[in-house]
From TrEMBL, chain A:
CDD domains: TM_PBP1_LivH_like. The keyword Chaperone does not apply. It is a multi-pass membrane protein. This is Branched-chain amino acid transport system permease protein.
TrEMBL record, chain B:
PANTHER family: HIGH-AFFINITY BRANCHED-CHAIN AMINO ACID TRANSPORT PROTEIN BRAE (PTHR30482:SF10), HIGH-AFFINITY BRANCHED-CHAIN AMINO ACID TRANSPORT SYSTEM PERMEASE (PTHR30482). GO terms for molecular function: branched-chain amino acid transmembrane transporter activity. Pfam families: BPD_transp_2. Keywords: Cell membrane, Membrane, Transmembrane, Transmembrane helix. One of its GO terms (cellular component) is plasma membrane. The chain crosses the membrane at residues 7-24, 85-103, 110-128, 140-158, 165-184, 214-235, 247-276, 288-310. This is Amino acid/amide ABC transporter membrane protein 2, HAAT family. It is found in: Cell membrane. It is a multi-pass membrane protein.
Length: 290, 323
């Protein structure tokens, strides 16, 4: 019983850390450009499929190389998707609905392209690190530890980027006041595209990390989109700190509900908690209106 | 668009649809597609009313449709209510749920509302498949396989002879679109626009956001649930596959093609989309790719849909005349 609870806590922590990585990406786009990206889950699968392709080539058969190659691909992809699909819509009054629609169309396009190209069967990636740490009944696989460290590392790098680099600071400036940022000479359009690209990288990395545990399927991204969405709304859309807390709360909640009531109840419990939170605090845990 | 032009536009559309069975009546397959067009035109019009006019990003329209169809099937099977009445009971039940979903949405904005309403969609599948659903009679993962066909005054509408059912649904769709038209024309429509454009200012002037938002939730979910009931009694079987993302996106394409907030557009969009969707079906697994690509291209190229295109043509003509 005691060991089981520790297991549940650890799995909650690990899932929470990966959710944090992905929710921070989603909340970033919303916070900076007020656009909601429905294709976010498809970008998650895209990360997994890129890694799967690279692992097919024996020369790249190493996680470090895969990360180094997948990141720029995702970055460029995200940048151009924003420039080509989202940016032209920004001029319109009702661009928020239009962005939701266009990204939903993109998601359908990408998911079914995966299905045609890679087939509907589940794909798996090799484990990043074999073996496990054992102490009596308590087992902790190294794979989980590495996933946890990589996710936290990703968030820390992202934090460093936001606080210490020029691009990161301009991202924060645009998030706080788009008009003011433009007046002092920050290229707003570029920042929008850059945040979209960064969030694509984050969710794609999350996809590679989680693919070793949960497989890659063409429509697997929807689950992730819903979870990232719930987490961002729970933590407050646009609030990165809120998203971080919310991700770990959701990870824990999911682990405990799944262990105690069964996996079918996790989604229901998630939405019940979300609705209660939003009923009391419509702006989420740490969100601000506006 | 002006109200007068909407009315004329709508009359032309329904006039054309009314005579379609003269040409296609002999082919059951095409009649089936036309019936589906009628059903989706109602759902899409409701979605347009709530999203385009009232400005509420409700993503629960498919969920309300499924709730309506399941509840009508269960009510008619379990309680022995004739399908004619069970569709209305299902509509009222769905409207109740719609108000329940609308309540938390009153305090929320934008993408949050989309999330809460989409949550209904996401939860529905585990609920229908799970123990609660099975206890209510949803048949779990298998779905409901036998649903009594629609029956009015002893006359049974069967799917082997679709023309009578087509006209029944035609009547329903016309009534629904007239209701929506009346809502848009009345002070409701003005209140929706005011709340959408400047909520704070509108409520200062005494437009109750609480009342109108709940009303639009109740009305759209009532109509959607009712048409869901008609759908259930037509196809005769239900499963949770309807909750897949394909149907949701199809509905969205209808709105994209028709134009968001351009009312009769959703009706035209429904007919075009469902017909094109059927024509693409020989392409198999490439079809959703094409549909997805189509959405992307259409949103960029035709942001106001076909109705927007018409409007542009009309306004250019007017300008040309005034010169």
């Amino acid at each position: 019983m005691f060991i089981e609870i520790i297991d549940v806590i650890i799995s909650g922590l690990i899932n929470g850390s990966v959710y944090a990585l992905m929710a921070v990406g989603l909340t970033l786009i919303y916070g900076v450009s007020k656009a909601f990206n429905f294709a976010y889950g498809s970008f998650y699968s895209m990360g997994g499929y890129i890694a799967f392709l690279l692992f097919g080539i024996s020369f790249f058969n190493n996680y470090l190389i895969v990360f180094c190659l997948a990141a720029p691909v995702l970055l460029i992809f995200g940048f151009f998707i924003e420039k080509l699909l989202v940016a032209p819509l920004r001029k319109r009054d009702d661009w928020e609905v239009k962005v939701m629609m266009i990204t939903l169309g993109l998601a359908l396009f990408l998911d079914n392209s995966y299905q045609v190209v890679f087939g509907a069967r589940m794909k798996s990636l090799p484990s990043i690190l074999e073996g496990s740490f054992e102490m009596g009944e308590f087992i902790l696989s190294y794979q989980d530890v590495v996933i946890f460290i990589f996710s936290l590392g990703g968030i820390l790098i992202f934090r460093w980027f936001l606080n210490n680099t020029r691009t990161g600071m301009s991202v924060r400036a645009v998030a706080q006041n788009p008009a003011g940022a433009q007046i002092v000479g920050i290229p707003k359009e570029f920042v929008f595209a850059a945040t979209f690209a960064i969030s694509t990288v984050m969710v794609g990395m999350g996809g590679i990390l989680l693919a070793q545990k949960y497989f890659i399927t063409p429509a697997g991204g929807w689950d992730i989109l819903v979870k990232a969405w719930v987490i961002t709304a729970f933590g407050g859309m646009g609030s990165i700190k809120g998203g971080l807390y919310a991700a770990f709360i959701v990870g824990m909640l999911e682990a405990f509900v799944g262990w105690y009531f069964g996996m079918t109840w996790t989604l229901i419990a998630l939405f019940a908690v979300l609705l209660t939170t939003l009923a009391v605090r419509p702006q989420g845990l740490m969100g601000k209106w506006g | 668009m002006e109200h007068k032009r909407i009315t004329v536009f709508l009359a032309i559309i329904w006039g054309v649809v009314a005579i379609l069975p003269l040409f296609f009546g002999s082919t059951n397959f095409i009649m089936h597609i036309l019936i589906m067009c009628l059903i989706w035109s109602v759902v899409a019009s409701c979605w347009d009313l709530i999203m385009g006019f009232a400005g509420i990003f409700s993503f629960g329209q498919v969920a309300f449709f499924v709730i309506g169809s399941y509840s009508s099937a269960i009510i008619s099977a379990r309680l022995g209510v004739p399908p004619v009445f069970s569709v209305f009971i299902a509509g009222i039940f769905t409207a109740g749920l719609g108000v329940l979903v609308g309540l938390p949405c009153l305090k929320l904005k934008g993408a949050y509302i989309a999330l809460v309403t989409f949550a209904v969609h996401m939860i529905l599948e585990p609920v229908l498949k799970g123990d609660i659903g099975r206890a209510l009679g949803t048949g779990g993962a298998r779905g409901i396989l036998t649903i009594a066909p629609m029956n009015i005054f002893g006359y049974t509408f069967t799917s082997s002879d679709p023309i009578p059912y087509f006209y029944l649904l035609f009547l329903v769709a016309v009534v629904c679109s007239v209701i929506i038209l009346m809502v848009i024309k009345s002070h409701w429509g003005t209140a929706f626009l005011a709340l959408k454009d400047a909520e704070e200012f509108a409520s200062c002037l005494g437009v109750s956001a609480f009342k109108y938002k709940l009303m639009v939730f109740a009305l759209t979910s009532f109509l959607t649930g009712m048409i869901g009931g008609f759908y259930a009694h037509y196809v005769g079987m239900l499963s949770t596959r309807m909750l897949g993302i394909d149907l949701f996106v199809t509905l969205m394409i209808i709105l994209v093609i028709g134009g968001v907030g351009k009312f009769p557009g959703a009706v035209i969009g429904a007919f075009i989309t469902i017909a094109v969707n059927e024509m693409l079906s020989p392409l198999g697994s490439y079809r959703p790719i094409i549909l997805g690509g189509l959405v992307v291209v259409l949103v960029l190229a035709l942001p106001d849909g076909i109705t927007g295109l018409f409007e542009k043509m009309f306004s250019e003509k007017k300008q040309g005349l005034s010169h």
